Sequence to fold (748 residues):
Amino acid sequence: MRPAAVLFVALALSTSVVVASDPPNLEARVQALLAEMSLAEKVGQMCLGGRGSRGSYDPLPEPLLEDARAGRLGAVLNVMDRGLMERLQRVAVEEGPRGIPLLFGRDVIHGFRTVFPIPLGQAAAWDPELVRQAARASAVEASTLGVNWSFAPMLDVSRDPRWGRVAESFGEDPYLSSVLGAATVAGLQGDDLAEPTSLAACAKHFAAYGAAEGGRDYNTVAVPETVLRDVYLPPFEAAIRAGAASVMTAFNDLNGVPATANAFLLRQVLRDEWGFDGFVVSDWSSVTEMIAHGTSADPADAAAQAAAAGLDMDMMSGAFGGHLEWLVKEGAVDSARVDEAVTGILRVKMKLGLFDDPYRRSAAGAPLLAPASLDLARRAVARSSVLLKNSGDLLPLPGGARVAVVGPLADAPHEQLGTWTFDGGAEDSRTPLAALRERLGERLVSAPGLATSRDRSRDGFGEAISVARQSDVIVFFGGEEAILSGEAHSRADLRLPGAQEELIRELAATDKPLVLVILAGRPITLHGLLEHTGAVLIAWHPGTMAGPGLADVLFGDAEPGGRLPVTWPKTVGQVPIYYGHKNTGRPPPDELVPFDEIPVGAWQSSLSNTSHYLDLGAEPQFPFGFGLGYTRFAYRDLEVSPATVAADGTVNVSAVVENVGDRPGGEVVQVYVRDRVASLTRPVRELVGFERVELAPREARRVAVEVPAERLGFWGPGGERRLEPGRFSVWIGPNAAEGLEGEFELTP
Ligand code: BGC
Fold:
C-alpha cells in the first residue's frame, strides 16, 4: 500500500503538474492535465515509437530522445534495458513539456525470461488459475526490467491450424478463450495496476484476425455480424470486463473495412456497448497498411480515417505523428476525438502509478528464473500436455526402462520455446534429452536421427535405428521448429515436416514400443502414423522447462493433464473443422461407405447425399476437449435442474464422476448445450462450462457445473441479443463428442 501522501506528487518540472492515481481524483486530474496540453503534445501521446524486437539500443538514438524531450512520444516498445529505459523516462519526465511519463511496451506473451508453454498449450490445461499464475510470474519478471505494458493476451479465436498464430491463441472455442483471456488479464495486471509488478494488458487483435481466409496471415476476413458476435467478440468482451487497460487492432480488414479504422468495432462495440475507457493501439504500422488494403490514399488519409474511427495510438507507422495535428487544424479530425484518445492514454498511465513513480521498480527486485517460476513452468508443461493415445498403458514408463531418445526436438533448446520468446534464452532451456539423461543415466541411449524438424536427409537413420534396437522403448521427440508457427508463419501442409514420418515408420518397424512426443505450435496431422505408435503425447512448444516437465509425465510423476483446445484434423483438407459447427440440412449418418468400398460405377445418389468427405468421412482425428490421463473415469447419474429454467435463472448440470482406475487422476468435466429449435441455426454443441476434479482411485464424486441461462443466448443480425425459449440438449462428459445427454427447457 502506498501512503496517501505519495498519491499526490508534484513533479519537479519546468511546468509542474500535480497528478495522482487515486481513483476518485483520477478523472479530474486527467482532465486538468489535458486542459494544459497543446494539440501537438496531445498528438505526441498518441504515438508509439521504438524499434524492432531484436536487441536493444545502446546508446539511445538521438531522434528518440529528441521525440521524448519534445513531447512527441507517448510510448515506446522494445527498449529492453533498464538503464536505457530510465534514461528515456528521465528525458520525458524531466525535460518533456508536461513531464508525462512513457509507457514501455513489450510482447510478454507466454513468459519473459522463464518461458511457459505457448498460449495454445496453456489453453490445453483448461486451468484458468494456472494461466493466471503464469501471466503473473511473467509480469513480475518483465516489470523487473522496466516493462509496464504487455501486448497480451491474444484473444483471436482460431479455427484454422494452418494459421501460424494459432500458437498464440487459446484455440477454437469462444467460452474457453474468454475464461482464459480474463485469467491472463488478471495475471498481468495483478490486483492493482499501480503495483510495480503489474503490467497494463492489451487485448489483441481486435477483431476476427483468427478468421483470416485460408489461414494465410494478415488475410481478408469476411464474417457476418452474427458469427462475429457469437464467436470472435466474446473473448474481447470478457477481457474488457476483467479490466484490460488497452486493446490492439487487427491487421485484417473485416467485411471490407480494415480493423484499424473500423468504427463499428472501435466505436460502437468497444466503447458504446462495452464501455471501454482505456485506449486502443494499432498493430505495427497497420495505420499506413490501409494504403495497401486500398482504403486509404496516403498516410494522412490513413491517419484521418483511423483517428476518426476510434484509434488512439499509432504503433510505428508515423502517420499520427506526421499528420494528425494539421488534420485536426484543418477540421478533418475532430479535436474532441483527440481529447478522448489522450484521456484514455493518460488514464492508463495514471492507473499504472507512473505519475507517482515513473521509474516503477519491482518491490523486491524479483530475480529472473526464480525457483517458483521454474517450478510453475514445469507443472504447466505436464498440465498442458495432451495424451492422445496410450495403447496397453504404455505410459507411464516403468522406472527401470531402458529408453532410446530419438528425434530432432529431443535436444533443441531454442525450438522448445516456441514463438514470441524474445526475452527467454535457449541457454536457460532444460531439454528433454538432458532431463531424461539425468533421470536414467546409463539406461538412456540416444541419437537424433534428424538434425532439424525439416531435415530430409536419411543419414542419421542408421544410428537412430541402432539405438532403438538397444532399448526397451523408443521415445521420439519431433514436431515443428519454433520458426514454423507464429506471426506470418502459416503452413499449407500440417504433417510433420522433413523426413520425420519416414523415420517414425522405420523406428516402428523395430517392433519396440514407440512413444511420439510432438512439440509444435499447432495441431499436426498424424493420419497414417497413429497406427505405428503406442502412445502419442502432444507437448506443444512447452518452454524453458520442457525437459523436466515431460520427464515427469513420461515416468508418471505427473499426469498428462491437457485436453485439446482445438479439434484435431486427420488431414489439412478437413480444415476448417471445429466442434461447434452448424448442422446443415443433411448431416452425415453414423455409418458411411468406406472410400475403398464405394462400388465402381455406383449411382450418383447411392452414397447418401450428406455433408462429409468421401475419403475421410465427417469426423476429426480427435475431438475438441479430448485427452487421456493415466487413469479412467466413468460418468453416471446425470441430473439437470431445474428442468425448466427462466431467462434470469441458472441450470445446474451434474453427474457422478468416478475414477475407475488404480491411480489418482484429474478429469476436466465439460458441459455442452445445443439449442434444438431457434430463429437462426445454432451450433451442434457449445461449451458452456467446465470443472477440473482430482479423484483418488475408486473415488466417485458428483461434479456440478452451473450454467447461467444468459449463456444460452446468441446474436441476431441487427446486433440484438436473443435468448429464446425452448428445448435445449445438454451433455456432461470428457470431450465434445461424448457425454451423458439430457435436456431442459428455457422459459421466457
Ligand atoms: C504483432 C503484434 C505485436 C506487435 C508488437 C505485430 O507484428 O502482430 O501481435 O504485439 O507486432 O511487437
Notes: The radius of gyration is 27 Å. The pocket of beta-D-glucopyranose is lined by residues 53, 107, 151, 204, 283-284, 487 (CB under 6 Å). Residues 262 and 308 are 9 Å apart (CA to CA). The first helix runs from residue 23 to 36.
